[in-house]
Amino acid sequence: MSRLFGLIGRKMLFRLDPEDAHGLSIKALKTGVVPACLPNNDPALRVAIAGLSFPNPLGMAAGYDKNAEVPDALLRLGFGFAEVGTLTPRAQFGNPKPRVFRLVEDNAVINRLGFNNEGHDSAFRRLTERRSHAGIVGINIGSNKDSTDRVADYVAGIRKFHSLASYFTVNISSPNTPGLRDLQARESLRELLEKVLDTRDAQPGVRRPVFLKIAPDLTEASLDDIAAEIGSHSLDGLIISNTTLSRAGLKSSKSTRETGGLSGEPLFERSTIVLAKMRQRVGTDLPIIGVGGIKSTATAIAKIRAGADLVQLYTSMIFNGPGLAREIVNGMSTTLKRDNVSTIAALRDCDVDDWAAKAIPV
Ligand SMILES: Cc1cc2nc3c(=O)[nH]c(=O)nc-3n(C[C@H](O)[C@H](O)[C@H](O)COP(=O)(O)O)c2cc1C
């Protein structure tokens, strides 16, 4: 945790409702009050996947910058890439407030935001304004709650943002939009991938990678189905995982019974097991981004050793402040030097079998 954030920032922010605190942090990044804190530019941390060259493997996960207000400010905090969204075609308010809850003793959060966002048009305007800026900015797309054709909403996202996205994430794993996770079932997934990837392939210019973001609450049989289905499409990678519906093992005295998706420390084990199981199923060629409970250099490297090419975080930044990305990235360099490993990519898959042998917690 950075000193300043540890001394005053966290205390002040934690007095506020979590959503208000989030709004304030976005404002702070927008206005430039948060100083840039770029990590060492270590070539050993570069990762090349899906036709993109990432300066380091740590990204900001979707949900922090839902409306594409601060992607460049996030990159200046040391993230190697930033994912904005989830964006739906039309603006929507999401679920009634309060809808985000801190579980302080668990370093975790439960959210049931329900894809609150300003819609495609406003994000399109913001991203157009920054289009000449360097840096990898992914766009996470979803469907409106009241949509009558969910697949069409994803297709609209690809069309709208194709000229602006470094990559796309097709998010079918939020637990807060009723029915959305059903798109992970094999027949639905087939139709979705066919239409989304055909649309991507029909766009002029550069081919944009498309990643699929899945839930951590899947059975071994569902993982088999997803792996089999993606094998017959030109999908560029997986993001594993979104938040969980599980409440197993929580220590907090407050808010554990709130409905919504749980993220942060208690998600680490589950999402890493699912990641390794998926790595075993899809083989070594398909890129995977590991996300869920990363809070340190050690947990980021553990995800990579469990099968991830890249990693992302969100919740631990709420607890540890804006200096966390740089701390983790610099720690990766130190670890590589200490262990005499030439590149971060060399660590991928070292522990896949150990992680994959564990049962997905119930
Ligand atoms: C408040 C909040 C909002 C989120 N919103 C989204 C979202 O809009 N789209 C999405 O794909 N994931 C969303 N996520 C999930 C994160 O991207 C990530 O997959 C999950 O939180 C696990 O990572 P973490 O433990 O590092 O937070 C959200 C998470 C949180 C805590």
Automatic annotation (TrEMBL):
UniProt GO MF annotations: dihydroorotate dehydrogenase (quinone) activity
GO cellular component, as recorded: cytoplasm; plasma membrane
Assigned keywords, A-Z: Cell membrane, Flavoprotein, FMN, Membrane, Oxidoreductase, Pyrimidine biosynthesis
InterPro entries xrefs: Aldolase_TIM, DHO_dehydrogenase, Dihydroorotate_DH_2, Dihydroorotate_DH_cat, Dihydroorotate_DH_CS
Subunit structure: Monomer.
Function description: Catalyzes the conversion of dihydroorotate to orotate with quinone as electron acceptor.
Protein name: Dihydroorotate dehydrogenase (quinone)
